[in-house]
Write a structure and sequence with these properties.
single chain; mainly alpha; 2 domains; two-stranded antiparallel ribbon
């Protein structure tokens, strides 16, 4: 603790000296990384950010070509945006509020599931509110593509690939999988994003094509019979039968 206070004092009292030292160190690191990538054929990246609000240093980053592609295509983030998100995570103190693996192990599974659902629902409400939708819309896991992405023009980014498809957290299948999602949501790796109208229309076309190929993109709607008629001749379907957050929770 005392050592940490001393470091903060140095940063506060000698900010320019600290920044010069950092700049020199990272210039050297950049050259070394570039040389290693070229000579050994390795790929990778690093991100270094300030450790607190007293330090005004800008994020330092290095991304090899494939490291850059990984962040853009898999995480759907610009490298510098990833650095800024990490900086925000560190400086805000959010890391201090995240449970350790041991703490998560001791918590009931249904509590972890509930927190995942609540975080997803709150994020959905927040992004819709930012875009002028003031009514409360429940998260629809069973028909996510039609009811959420296509209808509302928002998408849940960063859902871990080994947990796909997007589904009710209570149906992920075990504590380890729920914990992985919980961490992704807590650290903002998994978050809501608004789609442009062009992207929304493109998604509709893509989903229609996937569904036509036999993929279960849309939940099959339930049949209902009109009162006083035979089921075989008067079955109707409706999207109203789709489960939402209120009745799809496991």
């Amino acid at each position: 603790m005392q050592e940490s206070v001393q470091k903060q004092a140095i940063v506060r009292d000698q900010p320019k000296a600290v920044q010069r030292k950092m700049s020199t160190a990272f210039e050297t690191m950049d050259k070394e990384w570039t040389s290693l990538c070229s000579s050994l054929g390795i790929e990778g990246f690093y991100i270094a950010v300030c450790g607190g609000v007293e330090d005004l240093s800008t994020p330092k980053i290095f991304f090899s070509p494939k490291g850059d592609k990984f962040v853009r295509s898999v995480l759907d983030l610009e490298p510098r945006r990833l650095a800024l998100k990490f900086e925000s995570f560190v400086v805000s103190g959010l890391a201090d509020n995240i449970d350790s693996p041991l703490q998560r192990e001791s918590r009931p599974l249904n509590k972890l599931v509930g927190e995942c659902r609540n975080t997803i629902q709150k994020g959905l409400c927040d992004i819709l509110h930012e875009n002028g939708v003031n009514k409360t819309v429940g998260m629809n896991y069973d028909n996510y593509e039609r009811k959420i992405v296509e209808s509302l023009g928002v998408e849940l980014i960063g859902w871990l690939s080994d947990l796909l498809p997007i589904r009710n957290p209570g149906k992920l299948g075990g504590r380890d999988r729920v914990q992985k999602l919980h961490v992704a949501l807590t650290t903002k790796v998994c978050y809501w994003k608004k789609l442009s109208e062009e992207d929304r229309q493109r998604r509709i076309v893509l989903n229609t094509e996937r569904h036509a190929r036999g993929e279960e993109v849309y939940k099959q709607r339930k049949g209902r019979t009109l009162q006083g008629t035979e089921k075989s001749t008067a079955t109707i379907t409706s999207d109203d039968d789709d489960d939402d957050e209120g009745n799809s929770a496991a």
